[in-house]
Structure formats: C-alpha cells, structure tokens
Write a structure and sequence with these properties.
- By secondary structure, the protein is α/β, with parallel strands linked by helices.
- Helix content is about 40%, strand content about 20%.
- The mean pLDDT is about 90.
Amino acid sequence: MAKQIRIIGVMTSGGDSPGMNAAIRAVARACSYYNVKCIGFYRGYQGMIEKDYCEMTARSVRNIISSGGTILKSARSEEFRTAKGRKKAADNLKEIGVDAMVLIGGDGTFRGGKIFSEEYDIPVIGVPGTIDNDIAGTNFTIGYDTALNTVVEAIDKIRDTASSHDRLFFVEVMGRDAGFIALNSGVGAGSEEILIPEEDLGLDRLLESLKRSKRSGKSSSIVVVSEGDKTGKNVYELADYVTENLPDYDVRVTVLGHMQRGGSPSCFDRTLASRLCVNAVELLLDGEENVMVGLVNNKVVSTNFEDGLKEDHGINKELLRISDILSV
C-alpha cells in the first residue's frame, strides 16, 4: 500500500538555472490543488540539515514564474555527503512531518536524493534543473533553453565588434563536461568552429579551419569553446596558441561566465518547469518514488535515477557536421 502523503517538501540544489522559480511555483500550486501541504527548504540539502524552511501556499508563490534564480536559494552541502548530515536531515523531516520530497537540480542533487531515499525510505522525485542539459533521462533540462538564448544573444553582439575590427573571438560558454550549450549556440550563432568535450577535434583541425576561413575571404571569426573542451588547453591558452601559429589573426577572448545562469526564463522553460513539477507531485501522490521526471519526444516520462545519471548524454553529432558545412 502506498504511503499516504500529507506534506511534500521542495528544494533547489546545485547551480541555479532560469525556470527554477517556475518549478517551485508549480510544486506549491499542485500541492494546493490536491490539498497537500507544501514545505520549501532554503539552500537545498543544507536547509534540510539546518531545519531552515517555510510553508508555501498557492498565494506565496505568486508572480515568481517570470523571475530568474530561485527564491529558495541554492547551495552545495558538504555536510549532506556524510552519514551524520543525512541522518540529521532525515530527523528534521520526520519532526516537521514531511512525507516526500521534490528535488530540483542536476546530477549531484539526484545522487544525493537517491542515497538519502534508500537510507531512510523517504519517497523522492527528481526534477532536472540545470543549464548544462547533461541529464540523460530528458531531452531538455529546466534553464537550458534560456541559457542558449542568452549565449546566442551575446555572441551576436560579439560578432558586431569582431566584424568592425576584423578580429577572431574565442567565446567560452558553460556546460562543465557536456557540450550542449556550445554546440547548439555555436550553430545558432553561426560560429566558424565549435570545441566541445565530447569530440576532441584537435588543435591541427582548429588551425586548418581558421586558415580556410582566411582563404575564403572572412575577415572575422567566432570560435565557441565549451569550458570542458578536451584540447588540453583553456580558452586563454587556445588564444595564445592561435596567435603564435597564425599571427595574421587579431585574437580576443570573451568568457560569458555566470551571466548564462541569469535572466527571466523563456516561455519554453516556464512551461517545461510547470509540466515536470505537476507531474512530480502527482507521481508522489500515486505512490511512485525514486525516479526523475523528464521530457522525451514532448511527453513527460519518469526514469529511474540510475538511467537518468548515465554519463552518455547523447550529444547530437549531426550538428557538428552541419556546423562544418555551414562554416565555409
């Protein structure tokens, strides 16, 4: 018999992403719709350990759907990695009366939730919220679409100045060990070369590509570099390498950094967050647990944590071919 759910907790953990507030809103309002109490924990797992929480109602989450960041704050908790920290969190949930949790975050959040649920028999549902899009159990993670649009807009502006001064710009984007942001924004912004962790294209190919661009008459170029690129050089070292080997290029570096995490979420991310989090609450009420929800072929599906955390996230290599063709 499924455990009766009277109180559902919600938290955001790890790196923030646009759409997390829309996700929090959806959890709180779905709970209100089904007459279940909702508790929000501040700063992720650390808030559970410190018993730092608030009650969330349908009205307390009004007007947050358009806001970036997360009203519940976000943090990484080293204490939760210890058995003592997890026991303290479990004791606090029991004292408050929380019967189940919705965990909004990335792979670290899901790994922590999986261990926690197995140790203390607390039902958890994971909702993928990360700009990196590096969760295997979904085609899209909350915040990815907004981050892509932020990057493309920034590259468009960089190209204006690159063209004005006949310069080569290396633009570093986020993504950690996944090249989704670099690959898709690079194609969308018309970059001449894209360097991602999944494909080690090598420094010789980069030089040859830039030489080809020069021969074809291009006076400026954009190279998009994922922060986890496997050429063995960071973006500044890459720029120095090209300057040494292709002195005709006037090279500049732009690191977009944490601006990619901010801003009002796109309509897609707001809708995605709403769909996934309503489904997460409904799964808990139906007795489901220890899975993540995701969007696959435009349908909301649930996937066990092991499959969702697979390292092969399925980069679209066809886009690399398309990028190569269009960079002539």
